[in-house]
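Limitations
The structure tokens in this dataset are predictions for the assembled complex, not deposited experimental models. Users should treat interface geometry with appropriate caution, especially where small molecules or nucleic acid strands are included. An illustrative entry is reproduced here so readers can see what is and is not provided.
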Amino acid sequence: MPKARTKKDEAIEPGSDIVMDEVPTSHQPETRDGMSVDDDDVDEEGGDLEMDENEEEEEEEEDVQRVRILPGSTPTAASFEFLNEGHTLGNALRYIIMKNPDVEFCAYAIPHPSEAKMNVRIQTFEGTTATQALEKGLQDLQELCDVVTDKFVEARDKFKAAA
Amino acid sequence: MPHKPPTKEELERRKIVGINEETITDVASSDYPLHYPGEEHSWDIDAFRRGFSIQFHHNDPFEASFSLIGIDASIANAFRRTMIADIPTLAIETVFINNNTSVIQDEVLSHRLGLIPFKGGHEGLHKFLKWWRKPTDETLVNSSYYDYNTVSLRLEIQCEHNDKAAPGETDPTKLYKHAHVYARDIEFCPVGRQDRYFSGADTIAPVNPDILIAKLRPGQEISLSMHMHKGVGSDHAKFSPVATASYRLMPVINIERPILGADAEKFARCFPRGVIGLKKVTAKEAAQEGSGYEGHEGEVKAVVVDPMRDTVSRECLRHEEFKGKVKLGRRRDHFIYLVESTGQWESDAIFLEAVAHLKKRARDLEKQVVNMVR
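Predicted assembly:
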């Protein structure tokens, strides 16, 4: 597939405009011009503070919707599509959702390796919804990370003290 | 429906991945709700906290090893993958070549430069420096470089004859000046506020100054400047903060029937040194009926000393004399990590950063899910 060159094309390409913060430099649109060497960078100092504010604004506005429910879903049986996620979060999320006793079935898939998409299928018993199970899974994962951090710091400090 | 809770042995058995001569068994974990009738197994943060522990084996800036015990493979793997691919580091991204008359081609030289690991002040690297984003308007690219997103480096070197070289000298490094170009020849050019974060011991410099970049001969010259940006390992391996971040499962060796005498010595040789030890059979053991030690008092027996050092080569399963006497396995929930930093982060900090990164991703996605429902 030819790389999108014009701005118009970029908008169509899914995920290309998502979370520019996270996008590695080589994934960003190509430029054809040569770039000037920065021996004259020094005179940019004046603009620094101003740019800082701009940048923080941009970081906050990164709210592009990356999760959606796929068509054909019902409240208790839904498939979710995550953009720009992979096995790292997919498998961890699958595990923690499967640990939920209200969930009858949960699995994740990456339908095609060249599309940055990850799908999660959740089927729950009556009385709760797939979306609730997903939310709980994400919360549980955060709690888990906190415990791991606490224990890691504790173990490391103990090890340092003993050494 | 009353169900007996699982015995201790049963719980222990579920934790073991079996290793046979040609096959492995019980690969998947089964601690999910509804898997065993009458057992709970649902997510409980307090139960997790109680069952989870971390042990450090060694902790150096360039290499840390520690065990995570009581965690699922999916989570352990998420940490490992995050360490390799998602923790940002600073690396050379763009090389502007003014002159390169060496035998090494511009693109090869640029690639080599990109792979050199750099270090610098932690506050500057992790807090002050931000992502550089290529502007969508291509004409603005030259005004997208700021002190907080670009680090500028220079490499200017010329090779010359060394007049002081002894006659008949054949060593090029003595015969010529700058015959070898090393990473230490790269010069950091601080811009704007970078002086504040990257001066003295905190200056941006190659982790290893002795990396050979190119070789020159008199009259040849390399003159180039470079831009460093922050990036992640999923974009290019040069941005990965680790040389390797890996884990393995804790090996389990169960000697089920006594291995004695010369067999015991042979058994010990089937494993790396220090895994199996030799002990004398005591009078008490020999007196115990049905233990297999009867009448063997004073002989040596094989005992497991340190299974962690085992490589699980399965060599002991190839020998007839040990058939049925030993059972190999691995502990499903005991992950022995080895994190080797390239030098920009401390090894243990990389792991902590990975955990924090995973948490942030979960938090961001939680917001997105809430937003999706709205």
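Some entries come with short summary sentences. For this one: Chain A touches chain B through 77 residues (CB under 8 Å).
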